[in-house]
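Structure in, sequence out. Go:
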């Protein structure tokens, strides 16, 4: 830095290192501005000079181009670039606080060009079957909503007439109000934040730029969706205000419970009731799947609760990949409503089993454990 510099170093003024970030520069300037602002220190020339000094440092260091020049050449590199307007640097209502302070606090109170009102997002609750969720489905929806007026193309103005720029906010949609030492930005009450005024409104929508309509949509449900999933349709929500963009439509999926299958992620589960004869002797069962019937081979001496896995018979992942599996749980069913003859046959059969414990190993093991349990209690 040149030895001829008589001004204080800008980094020193703001109490910063030369590697300070933009956020640090803004933060320190905010602190100094609050401390030395003339509105808070009426008649204090020292505070006024400190405020001017901090403001000048901020103007340079917050601008990447000016900061680079200052870092290389010192004050001479930015002479005339900072503080050229003196202490009176614009503003609202004649306040010397002006635009620089409004800008530094703009992130708190809002600001920037007016944005036309965006339309509201819509939600549609869609109930589908398990089969539709697994294989995908295309559904036609009727959505009551607000759509852009076809007469004025959503502008709100009569055909052939354009909205005019709001004279109060000059198209920004915001007006700055001076409250003490704060410069507060508020939504323009004249145009309500739109930045434009409609002097000759459209007769069809009465200047609203939209009207109610039931919209028909064809929605493709991808394979693999599940309860709780949402499908977003961009720009299919309500139309925005004059010149505004539409909102989005969110289709909320709810999959109905199935009478046979239960879903767990990409896997399906079902219970298969079989007779104790089939479980004992084994055989083949016709098993329903969402892809059709398949044969399930049940080995002899299958116990109740045994789970058989059918690979690839489950649900495809919604984001792609191999389908899940189907888990078939065998449940041995106890016969009911037996005739007297059937009961006699079972009793005879049971006598042949009772003569030898090898036919019921689990029962023998369990009763042995029970016997030992009671013997331990006696001890």
């Amino acid at each position: 830095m040149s030895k001829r510099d008589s001004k204080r170093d800008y980094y020193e003024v703001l109490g910063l290192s030369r590697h300070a970030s933009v956020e640090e520069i803004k933060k320190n300037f905010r602190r100094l501005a609050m401390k030395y602002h003339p509105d808070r220190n009426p008649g204090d020339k020292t505070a006024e000079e400190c405020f001017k000094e901090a403001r000048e440092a901020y103007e340079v260091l917050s601008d990447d181009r000016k900061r680079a020049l200052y870092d290389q050449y010192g004050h001479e590199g930015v002479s005339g670039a900072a503080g050229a307007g003196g202490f009176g640097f614009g503003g609202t209502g004649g306040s010397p606080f002006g635009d620089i302070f409004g800008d530094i606090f703009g992130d708190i109170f809002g600001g920037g060009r007016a944005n036309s009102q965006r339309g509201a997002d819509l939600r549609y609750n869609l109930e589908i079957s398990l089969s539709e969720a697994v294989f995908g489905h295309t559904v036609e929806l009727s959505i009551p909503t607000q759509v852009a007026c076809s007469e004025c193309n959503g502008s709100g103005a009569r055909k052939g007439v354009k909205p005019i720029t709001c004279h109060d906010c000059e198209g920004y949609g915001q007006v700055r109000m001076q409250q003490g030492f704060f410069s507060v930005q508020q939504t323009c009450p004249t145009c309500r934040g739109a930045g434009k005024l409609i002097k000759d409104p459209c007769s069809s929508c009465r200047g609203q730029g939209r009207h109610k309509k039931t919209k028909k949509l064809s929605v493709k449900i991808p394979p693999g969706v599940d309860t709780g999933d949402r499908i977003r349709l961009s720009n299919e929500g309500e139309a925005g205000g004059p010149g505004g963009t539409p909102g989005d439509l969110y289709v909320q999926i709810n999959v109905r419970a199935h009478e046979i299958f239960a879903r767990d992620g990409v896997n399906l589960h079902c219970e298969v009731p079989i007779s104790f004869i089939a479980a004992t002797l084994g055989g083949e069962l016709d098993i329903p799947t969402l892809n059709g019937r398949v044969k399930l081979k049940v080995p002899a001496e299958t116990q109740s609760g045994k789970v058989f896995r059918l690979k690839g018979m489950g649900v495809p992942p919604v984001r792609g990949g191999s389908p899940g599996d189907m888990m078939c749980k065998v449940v041995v069913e106890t016969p009911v409503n037996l005739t007297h003859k059937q009961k006699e046959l079972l009793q005879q059969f049971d006598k042949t089993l009772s003569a030898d414990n090898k036919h019921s190993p689990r029962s023998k093991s369990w009763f042995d454990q029970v016997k030992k349990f009671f013997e331990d209690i006696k001890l």
